[in-house]
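Students often ask why we bother encoding 3D structure as a string. The short answer is that it lets us treat folding as translation between two languages. Here is a chain of 422 residues written in the first language.
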Amino acid sequence: MYYTNAYKQSVGIGNFFSLSLPLPLRALSSPKEVTMIQLKPLAVAFCLSSIVAAVPANNAKVVDLPIWSEDDYYSVSFAVGTPPQNYRLQFDTGSSTTFLDNAACTPKDCPNVSGFPRNMYNISQSRTGKFTGVNTTNTYDGGAIAGPVAQDCFHIEGLAPWSQTFVDSTLNLFGATAADGLFGLAFPYIAANGTQSMLQAMGKQGVLAEPKFGIYYGDVNSNQTMQGGILTMGGTRENDFVKEGLVEVPIVKTNYDGVEYEVWKADLASIKGSGSKEAIKTPNKLVTFDTGSGYIQVSNETVHALYESLGLGWNYTLILEDKQILYCNEFNSSWSVTFGFGKEGDRKVTLYGDELAMPGFPAAPGACWPPFSGAGGDYNIFGTPMLKALYSTWDWGSFNPAEFKPSVRFGKLKKHKPVGSQ
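And here it is in the second language, the structure alphabet:
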């Protein structure tokens, strides 16, 4: 899911064959008025005192959160409020805001066509919840949220509770999302007005050991659903999941002035299919690593050459016109694509055909979804089809924005064996 605001335009989830440009920032209707709850000082102090006195450093922890998979939406569980109530929040590296739907939000303003029964947040049921007096709007490609900013205790088993600001949405246009809400894992600069990103809040309050997280999406079961995934916060688990070394990819600053980190965006210098001797050069191109996107999207000027470079006879124009269907038995480890990240393209990550198979394409029995799509513009977004095939670590370098030195590292999973390996 890709965030847009007055400083940045970006893109995110859309239909595979929808090749639209990024949505422009647009004015949204004002959030509904929500009654302000008067809280007892002692109730607020139960959790919010952590703003003043952070948890001692020796209590900071690393925690593993099981990943839930629902219709290719990936979420983890948090408890919110006092007494705590459980919520499943989609984790999104393409944005920085946390939101939950307000319990009074109507089906018109907070549609839900996902089939997932959402648990909506009711601030009157939490002794530690309060509104901050700020109303805010967040616009993404494919949807938007709006509402008052709330503050409450968040809980994860094994960690000290922390105070978290979030949008108590009275408008949520992500009707297909199979989760109760979302929390962004990008950088604080793009968090919605009046809110802190979750990693930032946990770091300031001394809850996490380090400003990093790791993602293992798990294995595919017989129903083609991911299971056994783990989101590690405060540390990473590459020793458990990675077959050999990690490839480190530096993250670049991308706001208009070039002085702020926004999302997990890196240089993309080249793409090489195994059926071609020469790499496709992509100078001065950037790629966003986005857990909220269900696609590997490359710029329109590159996607046709990418398919040709695989040497499989696949033609992107024919695929778009429904004249060529890709069958899952064609997705095997005899072919691959290598992405050259970094300014010089020397940070190389290779994905094999069997790692890119996505069964369930409705055009024919046994068909797989096309592995790459045109982005509809001059940008690149690498989402879960890439990230599920790898173990990834995401590191700010510091909890202090002035000392950020972020990078993403990718490692091949222990279980995968390319053709010819023993």
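Translate back mentally: The first strand starts at residue 3 and ends at 4. Keep this in mind for the problem set.
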